[in-house]
Amino acid sequence: MPRRVLIFWLAALCLLAGCAQGGAVAVAPPKAPPPSEYRIQRGDELEIRFALNPEFDSDALVLPDGRISLQLVGDLYAEGLTPAELTERLRNAYSIELRDPDIAVNVKSMAARIYVGGHIERPGEYPWSRQITAMQAIARAGGFSRTADTSHIIVLRRDKSGAERKIEIDIDDATSELGRNRDVYLAPYDLVMVPSSGVSDVNKWVDQYIRQNIPLRPRELDVP
């Protein structure tokens, strides 16, 4: 993960300290995850396998510069690509040395993380997985504190350009029979925040604790 992005979220978590122990509440199932494939991150470990040339099989770590180092072809940029896109890039690269290379790329281990902060038991950094939701992340972090405002669970997400998207979840609505509010699947490096029940203006709270007190701005995020 880019160092400056990590600093951004960790600084946010330091400002959003959790309090006394509480519990997680079940909410309506989220919609299916988006169809887009996982995109390779710095720190991921990849399995690269050659069906007809196993002597070139390797496990490659995505380095801090986003590249991997392989036999014959040297360094190739992998960060931000899906496994399928990287597979096609490798086929093109190896076709100079090998005839019709049959290559498969799998993500052996993911470096991606999510961050949970605010009025929960254990704010911090947690591993990301394809199927983890905001409520599951809160449960993993020990659940809500007694002072949590469960009507304004906030997920902050940044795209490659650094643009911020805010998603709100209201547990009361999500658990009602006709409620349309649903839990959401998390993307890598999402920040899940639970404000205090004493906060009257959630947007102002987000602005105060996330935007004004963090020196980084979206355009400064270290993204490709």
Attribute tags:
five-stranded mixed sheet; 224 residues; alpha+beta; 5 helices
What does this structure look like?
The chain has 224 residues and is of the alpha+beta class. The chain has helices at residues 3-15, 83-94, 134-140, 171-175, 202-212, and strands at 45-50, 58-61, 67-70, 74-77, 103-109, 113-118, 124-127, 153-158, 164-169, 191-194. Strand 6 and strand 7 form a beta hairpin. The N and C termini lie close together (11 Å).
How far apart are the first and last residues' alpha carbons, in Å? 11 Å
In percent, how much strand structure appears in the residues? Answer: 15-25%
Low-confidence stretches: 13-26, 212-224
Measured on Cα atoms, how large is the radius of gyration?
Answer: 20 Å
Mean pLDDT, as a whole number?
76
Number of strands: 10
Trace the largest sheet across and list its strands. 7-6-10-8-9
Overall geometry: elongated
Structural class: alpha+beta
Report the helical percentage.
10-25%
Order of helices and strands: HEEEEHEEEHEEHEH
Largest sheet: 5 strands, mixed
Helix count, DSSP H or I runs of 4 or more residues: 5
